[in-house]
Amino acid sequence: MSSSAATSPRATPGPGRPKDLAKRAAILDAAARMFTQHGFEGASMDQIAAEAGVSKLTVYSHFGDKEALFGEAVRVVCASLMPDDLFVPDTGAPLRLQLTGIARAFFAMITSDEALATHRMMMSPGGDERVRQMFWQAGPERTQRAFAAFLDARAAQGELELPDVPRAARQFFALLKGDLHTRMACGLCDRPEEAAVEAHLEATVDMFLRAYARNVPAAR
């Protein structure tokens, strides 16, 4: 949004704003479904508008173009599954507990049917590099930045020793994915039982803490 739009009287909340916000939410929900089902190239703005129950003009007035709509849909879905408050450091809570909560949310997100379908779409040959870049910035990059800020804050409390915070953040998520995410994305296995998932999360957090923790009690 431009600064002029932000200061314009027309941007002031009024009777029409809740309806506009509802339309925006409906468009994003429809876009997420259509992009997941048909891929970026296969999903059309006409389809998304029809699915959302709005005109195509309304879709364009909210998001400008298909690329912007895709990026925002990815961002909103990721934020709903891994909200910002998940990364707020709680110095009153054990570090292990917070790391496990983040790990659980991340693993649930990347192994959802929608996320796996999107991953396959991103990896398909001949895909648009711009779309991949938008996906990266709206999804994985946002998550890594938020987690890196969390790690930095816990390190400032003396709980972690991190020579390279962004690298440590990337390592944590790579450990969580492991080979399981790749096999699921390739359709070679189903999501494991809850007990197996929890064991994987605990093992990942243990390994991360063994590498970077300062005087953190071991798991029971």
UniProtKB/TrEMBL annotation:
InterPro entries: Homeodomain-like_sf, HTH-type_TetR-like_transc_reg, HTH_TetR, Tet_transcr_reg_TetR-rel_C_sf, TetR_C_Proteobacteria. The keyword Repeat does not apply. Residues 1-14 have a biased composition (Low complexity). Keywords: DNA-binding. Residues 21-81 form the HTH tetR-type domain. Gene3D superfamilies: Homeodomain-like (1.10.10.60), Tetracycline Repressor, domain 2 (1.10.357.10). Residues 1-20 are annotated as: Disordered. Residues 44-63 bind DNA. PANTHER family: HTH-TYPE TRANSCRIPTIONAL DUAL REGULATOR CECR (PTHR30055:SF146), HTH-TYPE TRANSCRIPTIONAL REGULATOR RUTR (PTHR30055). This is TetR/AcrR family transcriptional regulator. It comes from Luteimonas rhizosphaericola.
